[in-house]
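Please, structure for the following, as tokens.
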Amino acid sequence: MFSRSLRGTRRPADQGGRSQRPPFSFVPSFVPISRCATPGVRFRDCALAQGCESRLSLIHRRIEVADPLDSHPESPLAPPPEAPREPILTLPPALTAYILLIAAIHLRVLLPPELENWTIDVFGFIPKRYDSTLLDITFPGGEGAKVWTFVTYSLLHANLTHIGFNVLWLLPFGSALARRFGALRFFVFMAVTAAAGALAHLLTHEHAIAPMIGASASVSGTMAAAIRFAFVKGSFLSFSRGDAEAAAKVPALSLWRALRNGRVLAFLAIWFGVNILFGATSLSLGGEGASVAWQAHIGGFLAGLLLFSLFDPVPRTRDDAADASSVDQSGRV
């Protein structure tokens, strides 16, 4: 880049007797002076130029490898936020409160036998209580029990197996319904379907004196209500579901469209077949001597299926659009 050094050469003095050395000849004689290869510059200190060049090269390399954000030391780089971790199982608060209430009430089994039996007689549903021909028989709870037992029986259970079986079905169907309805609508819906189940049991067991307990009628109601939207594209039983909140709030099918959906019809056939099997064979999930009140299941189921629209706050699309949305991305119905 630079020419050969001119060190050791002298030029003749001009007329004034002055030397023709460059005006920066104050540089010590051991520093070589060379002619610069850059046009327009006559002389340059070679050692100084080489030192500047090496520094510029070093700075250039530092700029190339440096992080562009390092130029703002006053704003340190914040660590990236951690991605939220999804829990394995999430329950809406309304359903969690409902399950905890059932569990707390079941602590009645710790009471003395006389007090536990009194609790079942007062809060269980006894069809004989409404028999007008038994004028000389009184049941614990008086006239008030004829009203509240339509609902309170659903909060009592025979044993932990009874509770576990109902909760098992509440986890998928009750969770979706609680997210869709909200807490208040969900609790009212559970009470209405429980009352419908009690009414169905009363009509088919008019003179029965054995109390009926269990949330199975309400659970059946949640299953019936949930199938109105469960198989719609993006919902919790579809092949292309989204997150839990979005899956619970897809537009529901009308009752007419639901009863024409292949998956809904298959679900109905299986559900009614299982309940009729329990009724015909007298299978039991409760304690010794207990039987399944399958008529109450059907009453709660029909109430949930027919009354779903009265509780549903999600606007429905047109029937043709809702029907088209029931087909998932794979083309399966």
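The CA atoms of residues 54 and 60 lie 10 Å apart. The two ends are 79 Å apart (CA to CA).
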